[in-house]
Amino acid sequence: MCQDNIKSKKTVSIIANEEIAAGVYQMVFREQEIAERTKPGQFVNVYCQADSRILPRPISICQVEPRAGLVTIVYMVVGQGTKEFSNLQAGQTIDVLGPLGNGFSPVACEESILVGGGVGTPPLLELVKQLPGTKHVFLGFRTGSYLVDAFKQYAQVYIATDDGSVGQQGTVIDLMNAVGAKGQQVYACGPKPMLAALKTWTNERDIPAQLSLEERMGCGIGACVGCVCKVKTDTESGFTYKKVCKDGPVFDAKEVIL
Ligand SMILES: Cc1cc2nc3c(=O)[nH]c(=O)nc-3n(C[C@H](O)[C@H](O)[C@H](O)COP(=O)(O)OP(=O)(O)OC[C@H]3O[C@@H](n4cnc5c(N)ncnc54)[C@H](O)[C@@H]3O)c2cc1C
Ligand code: FES
Fold first, then answer.
1. Rounded to two decimals, what is the model's pTM?
2. Which atom of ligand 1 is found nearest the CA of 85?
3. Phi, psi (degrees; rounded to nearest 5) at 122
4. 60 assigned to a ligand binding site
5. Is 2 annotated as a binding residue?
6. I want to staple 209 with a disulfide (CB 3.0 to 4.6 A). Which of 41, 48, 108, 202 is the partner?
7. Do 64 and 34 contact (CB within 8 A), yes or no?
């Protein structure tokens, strides 16, 4: 996994910032080094302009176009920081730091399963582009959906929604069971309950899985210990703590305790 992060904040030009679903925005910015160095599953720290919001907001890198130097992020408006980002227009600038964290480690196999939940969906797009073999993508949303056409260019896509507004009603795990999902490697990003259910699902079938955690973060660069998760060890306690921002956000399902 990659750990050669770029550590200086950059002021970047926003090329586009559009609402692609209710409260979900797609921002494209130009930054050559991030576009060239990003591995699927890495994230950027995005900074607010308001002085009252000094902590950066971690947002996954959805896709990159290295030749054009373009980086796309997709974010949901949940609080004041993301609200501020949603008001920015093409032609304005924003401060970002990245690429940060360790991303997914693509494994060459015949069939891969990718599972995204809500705002855990965006980082899987760059991954699905880069993975060899046949790819089965399972996306779960509360209501509606986004990025589906982009995924369809690379994979067979199945959708589940809590309210049944798109695809099958129920969880993404229900959907995987309904279609008999199969593959030799699983990659996932989404809320903790989804990742915990998937950990059980892959354990029962003895399929290796890489899970990306979206823990609440402070600094995002390993300095504040604000983002720890538990991982198994052979010690008496049976576990130790790792930092999601620096050691993750992607962890082996067999190692991480959810
Ligand atoms: C590695 C990683 C990748 C992420 N990728 C995406 C993505 O691609 N798209 C997306 O919509 N969201 C993503 N998130 C969640 C996103 O960071 C939060 O929704 C966002 O920081 C909320 O900021 P706010 O100011 O609007 O909300 P507030 O709740 O006002 O934020 C207050 C503080 O809490 C932190 N915070 C709040 N919610 C979260 C959260 N879920 N995860 C981490 N920190 C949080 C904020 O960074 C901020 O420091 C990701 C989180 C992590 C850790
Ligand atoms: S967010 Fe500060 S150490 Fe991870």
1. 0.95
2. 26
3. -50, -45
4. yes
5. no
6. 202
7. yes
Q: Is 238 annotated as a binding residue?
A: no
pLDDT, tens digit only, all 258 positions of the chain: 444 444 689 999 999 999 999 999 999 999 999 999 999 999 999 999 988 888 999 999 999 999 999 999 999 999 999 999 999 999 999 999 999 999 999 999 999 999 999 999 999 999 999 999 999 999 999 999 999 999 999 999 999 999 999 999 999 999 999 999 999 999 999 999 999 999 999 999 999 999 999 888 999 999 999 999 999 998 889 999 999 999 999 999 999 999
Residue 184 CA from chain centroid, whole number:
21
Pocket of ligand 1 (CB under 6 A): 43, 55, 57-60, 74-76, 78-82, 119, 122, 214-217, 249
Report how far ligand 1's centroid is from the alpha carbon of 79 (Å).
Answer: 9
What is the whole-number distance in angstroms between the Cα of residue 145 and the centre of ligand 1? 19
